[in-house]
């Protein structure tokens, strides 16, 4: 395993995620109970659950799960899907397979840390920063200028974590074509797809746009089922999928059989679950708007275009790091300060924090947050 730095988000969460009274920075949509999920099962999947044998499963993933996943794509079939133990394993192994010494990658920032640090452990990486002054827009000309003859991967994430930003569909299509023309793999993290504020802005999936692109997804974020630990990559490059499978032999080998059946149920019921989760976010956003309006002297708020996280700006003179520490220690309200998203590649804002808007009933957390601010 390549030597990697501490995963700042997970280190922070290991201290606070399960001890803070109010988890106001959750990156997943509202989850459901086992009973609620099983109630969505069709007769065949209910029977599969009841009669499940707890043996090894196929390395590529359960064939019926892969078929269910493929049904969410326009051009990718079941054979174009390989499943992993969550999105993190998929991202890690994809970079190990795609990159090596002498190669080059381009990564947008801010991002989920592994999207940057895993490539950096393998090769040279250039960062291209989203522009906060333009609603976290991506400059495609800057991406193109960053490409080199040795560029093997361009890594993007939309809807973006932590900003909630989207790009126009035409920009993603141009990016996919740009990469394909140059023999570069577009690696597209699409884990928040389906939670767009305006469904008309839902982006096409990269694996549908280009036969060399990789689409990363997972049951954790939009579906709100992180406990299943089921992620996947869709890619129409058969040789690359084979290399991913051989890499997986060194990590999880295969997925959890119960989780694969439960993931199959969830993906078949995807439209109903996403409608529920979009409804929760739509109900929550006016509450967050009202909160940040009340404390407009302290915060600069922008609702996410998609996903269930946002990246507001803190205007206080004490700085966002001290502010987030005091907030969790005194009020029990957990946010993620800007340092969690610090990039080695680009200048990243030092006055932001991540907040989650996808959990049901944020009122107790917002009330504790407000009480803390009023008591300062």
TrEMBL record:
Aminotransferase class I/classII large domain residues: 54-357
Q: Which UniProt keywords apply?
A: Aminotransferase, Transferase
By its UniProt entry, which Pfam families does this protein fall under?
Aminotran_1_2
Name a GO molecular-function annotation. Answer: pyridoxal phosphate binding
Task: State the source organism's domain of life.
Answer: Bacteria
Annotated protein name in UniProt:
Aspartate/methionine/tyrosine aminotransferase
Q: Which organism is it from?
A: Nonomuraea thailandensis
């Amino acid at each position: 395993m390549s030597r990697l730095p501490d995963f700042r988000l997970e280190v922070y969460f290991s201290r606070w995620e399960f001890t803070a009274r109010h988890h106001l920075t959750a990156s997943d949509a509202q989850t459901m109970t086992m009973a609620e999920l099983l109630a969505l099962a069709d007769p065949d999947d209910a029977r599969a659950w009841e009669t499940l044998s707890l043996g090894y499963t196929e390395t590529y993933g359960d064939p019926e799960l892969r078929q269910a996943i493929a049904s969410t794509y326009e051009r990718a079939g079941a054979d174009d899907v390989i499943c992993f133990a969550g999105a993190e394993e998929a991202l890690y192994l994809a970079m190990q397979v795609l990159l090596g010494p002498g190669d080059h990658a381009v990564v947008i920032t801010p991002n989920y840390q592994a999207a940057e640090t895993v490539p950096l452990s393998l090769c040279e990486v250039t960062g291209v920063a989203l522009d906060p002054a333009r609603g976290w827009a991506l400059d495609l000309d800057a991406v193109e200028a960053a490409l080199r003859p040795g560029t093997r991967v361009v890594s993007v994430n939309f809807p973006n974590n932590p900003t909630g930003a989207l790009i126009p569909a035409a920009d993603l299509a141009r990016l996919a074509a740009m990469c394909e023309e140059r023999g570069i793999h577009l690696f597209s993290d699409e884990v928040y797809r389906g939670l767009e504020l305006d469904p008309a802005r839902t982006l096409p999936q990269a694996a549908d746009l280009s036969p060399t692109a990789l689409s990363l997804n997972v049951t954790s974020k939009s579906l709100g089922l992180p406990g299943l630990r089921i992620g996947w990559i869709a890619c129409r490059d058969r040789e690359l999928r084979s290399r991913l499978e051989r890499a997986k032999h060194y990590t999880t080998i295969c997925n959890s059989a119960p989780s694969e059946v439960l993931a199959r149920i969830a993906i078949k019921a995807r439209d109903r679950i996403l409608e529920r989760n979009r409804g929760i976010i739509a109900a929550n956003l006016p509450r967050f708007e009202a909160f940040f309006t009340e404390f407009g002297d302290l915060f600069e708020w922008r609702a996410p275009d998609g996903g269930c996280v946002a990246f507001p700006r803190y205007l206080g003179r004490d700085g966002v790091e001290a502010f987030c520490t005091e907030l969790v220690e005194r009020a029990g309200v957990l946010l993620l300060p800007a340092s969690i998203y610090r990039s080695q590649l680009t200048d990243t804002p030092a006055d932001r924090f991540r907040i989650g808007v996808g959990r049901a009933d944020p009122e107790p957390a917002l009330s504790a947050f407000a009480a803390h601010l009023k008591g300062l």
